[in-house]
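Quick check before the chapter quiz. The format below is the same one you will see on the exam, so make sure you can read both the input and the output lines.
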Amino acid sequence: MIPLKDDNPTHSTPVVTYIIIGICVAVFLLELSSPYYKTGAIFYSWGVIPASLVHGVPIPDEIYKVPPTVTLITSMFMHGGFMHLIGNILYMWIFADNIEDEIGKVKFIIFYLLSGIAAALTQVFLNTESMIPMVGASGAIGGVLGAYIVNHPRAKVLVLIPLGFFSQIVKIPAMFVLGIWFILQFVNSAFTSSTGGGVAYGAHIGGFIFGAVAILFFNRNVKRKTASKKRSIKSKNPWDQN
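Here is the expected output.
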């Protein structure tokens, strides 16, 4: 299933969502312009390398750019190819605006970054000896999807279902679309573990679970602030005789 759009309106312009998408596109264009893109050295400079992060395995001086802990941030704005980038932008475009709208722009930045870090650490601790760099916004976006399925399980999502030479466009509740996406991460993870696939499915799973749990905390803070404002407005009402 390929999601195309949802029917979940927002009350504000998702500025942060657009900025994150813009940064990812800009960074990818910079990657393409680098002579180190084809050799893959650029991913060793800015991507998360589990063995380096956990065990301090040194990176050659000629490609070392930032400390391993910093790559937990830099890696989530990089992508390995066009399809990797386009797929992430699509999910970000459809689902992130509602979460940003609900918890606010500043909190959404925090939520997004924490989701990306949690996702990366999940993948790291699945194989702490790996020297393969990990890049991509997929883990952070996984957090957004986890938050969406908690806050909007019944929202309708328009999806394209390829059926050989034919295709079908239908509306399906978000809980099924994102639930199936989550299950597929486990299935694909089990399959690629034996075939050596290069997709960090562990990061997708970790980000999704983190987002589904963390959004409960962010929701609670938003509700508290809203309730506080309502009490403040009521107390200042000059016509209130109570």
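If your answer matched, good. The chain has nine helices and three strands.
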